[in-house]
Structure formats: C-alpha cells, structure tokens
Amino acid sequence: MRVLGIETSCDETGVAVYDLEQGLLGHCLYSQVELHAQYGGVVPELASRDHIRKILPLVREVLTTTATTPQQLDGIAYTAGPGLVGALLVGAAVGRSLAWSYDVPAIGVHHLEGHLLAAMLEDPAPKFPFLSLLVSGGHTQLIKVLGLGQYQILGESVDDAAGEAFDKTAKLLGLGYPGGAVLANLATHGDPKRFTFPRPMVNRQGLDFSFSGLKTQVMTTWKAQASQDEQTRADVARAFEDAVVDTLVIKCRRALQQTHLTRLVIAGGVGANQRLRQQLSALANSLKVKVFYPRPEFCTDNGAMIAYAGCCRLAAGERASLGFNATPRWALHNLQIPRTATK
Ligand code: KG4
Ligand code: ZN
C-alpha cells in the first residue's frame, strides 16, 4: 500500500509518500516562517493563501522524486485537524479532490496522531505500548499509547504549551518568531549558574504541566537587568531552557515509574531540542528504559508523519467519506473516523 500524505495545519506545507513495504519513499516541506516573521506570529489568512500556492507544486515534486504515478497510489491522507481552519481546509480540499480524481480512498488524519507516530519512521521503530512525551507549539502531553488510536492522556499543560513558552520567551528576549530553536541556540552560550527559574508544578502530585508563570518570571528578570547585553540574554535563555527541560524530565520520570512502561517516545517540535534529548537519554539510561526520537525534521510539522499515520489507518480499513471537513479543535482521545467504504 502506497499513500500520499499532506500536512497543512499551520505554517508548513508538507507532502510525502509512504509505502507500507518499502517505508518512507520521499518527502518535501515548504516553511512559511519568513512570511509570518514580519508580523511576529502566524497570520491565518496568509497561511491559507500560501498553502494554496505551494501545495500542488509540492505534490508534483514528491511524486516525481519518488517516481510514483497516480496509479501506484492506494490512498491520500491529509491533516483534518487540529489547526488553523483555513489552512486545514486547503489540505483537506486538495487531498480529498486528488483521491476522488485518482479513484482511491482518502483519510483525514489527526495532526497529533501524526506527531505521536513520527518515531515509527525511524529504525529501530518503537513497539506498542509506549509512553509518549508530546511537546509541540500547541500541546504538552504525556500519553500512554497502547496501539493505533488508543491514546490515554496521563497529563497535560493547564496553560501554555512548552513550545508556546519557548516562542513567547524568545519574543520577549527580542529573538523574533518563531524563536524556540533560536532561543535554544543562544542558550548553548549561556551560563547555567547565573539565573535560576522555578520548575513549575513539580511539587504537586500528578502529571500536569504549567508554563505560563515561567514566562512571566523570565520577563521580570529580563526587565530588571541594568545591562541587557548579549551574555545576559544568553544566560536568561539558558536558565529558561533548563527550567523547561528539567520540568519535562521530572514528569517523564514520574510517568514511567507510575506506568511501568519501558519505552519512551518523543514527539513534537520541542522534541528537536538537544538539551531535552540529552536529559531524556540520561533519564532513560538510569531507568533502563529505551528512548526513541524522530529525526529533528520529523519532530516539527511534516508530511511524512501524516502519510505514515494515514497509511496505518487506511490499511486498517478506515476511509473518509466523500465530503470533507476540517476540525480545528479535536481531542486526541476521540479519534473515531467513519468506517464507510466510500472512495
Ligand atoms: O510540532 P510543531 O512543529 O508544531 C505544532 O504542531 O505546534 O512545534 C513547533 C514548536 C514551536 O513552538 C517551536 O518554537 C518549537 O516547536 N521548537 C523548539 C525547537 N525547535 C522547534 N523548541 C525548543 N527547541 C528547539 N530546538
Ligand atoms: Zn505539529
């Protein structure tokens, strides 16, 4: 089975071809970062328009580079939510229309399921069940993953997501948007001992997170500095990153001990963070747990994870109906997809 995957939930147009026997055949990505940077955040209408401009050229490109003819495709997967409604509708409309014209089934994929399964694109791939730390721009969740579509949320952020905290903190330090990776880079030059920020909610029972207070603490500290020089900026960035990473690691340790799961899988854009990866590897070593990471380009949004998740669901017999829908808000534990035989 060979599936074309399309991701357009936010500001990245991603397209990929995944083959059940041969694995990922190819993928390409267009990032709108420069388009939105001048506004300090994603402008939804501009995002939709840019997806329209880029989606078909990217589909053509990936079909060409993977030497895939439309006749070789067994299905089309598109991100159906959660995300920006206009952006989602572009991918859904194009995906559903291509499926109709190629006479193959279509499937609407949950964006977070794509992230959760992205590590399956690597070798070795994790086996079910596993604990997933999903850390993206919109979500921070600890999830017990029992199988395809079987997701139990063990804990989540009660306010800002980890990626959102990275982006907001980067912005207030004058690092532009989206600043997560820029802040992480700057933090490598920072002195870890100069500032210390609290590790939110670690003294409370449970597996929930809260990151919005941390951002306020950074703001107060940054504004109080007589000299906002480059070294101070790097030192604040380092202290912030350490606080987020420590908090995530402490909660992962707790979740692994509570669930007795022996595999930890990282997912989402913040999963590209090197310090987080180092600390989680150390944790996994100490607990004799195996940790799995998608390559950094598959931590952030991409078409490959959607092609993979869609392929799994199509192989399980699921199909989207002829109509299509975008679901901007969509809970991960509610992933029923209508089992119709419609192509
Ligand atoms: O998963 P993703 O691409 O999009 C969502 O589905 O939200 O995640 C994007 C988030 C952004 O907040 C970005 O700043 C953050 O991931 N991010 C990072 C790094 N690379 C991307 N945060 C920390 N360190 C990084 N290296
Ligand atoms: Zn994402």
What can you see in these coordinates?
By secondary structure, the chain is an alpha/beta fold. The protein has 11 helices and 10 strands. It has 2 domains: 2-117 and 298-342, Nucleotidyltransferase, domain 5, CATH 3.30.420.40; 129-293, ATPase, nucleotide binding domain (Nucleotidyltransferase, domain 5), CATH 3.30.420.40. The chain has helices at 33-37, 44-65, 85-102, 111-117, 162-172, 180-187, 212-223, 230-259, 274-287, 296-299, 303-315; strands at 2-7, 12-19, 23-31, 75-81, 106-110, 130-135, 140-147, 150-156, 263-267, 290-292. The chain has a 5-stranded mixed beta sheet, sandwiched between helices. The protein has a 5-stranded mixed beta sheet with strand order 8-7-6-9-10, sandwiched between helices. Helix 8 runs parallel beside helix 9. The relative contact order is 0.19. Zinc ion binds next to helix 4.
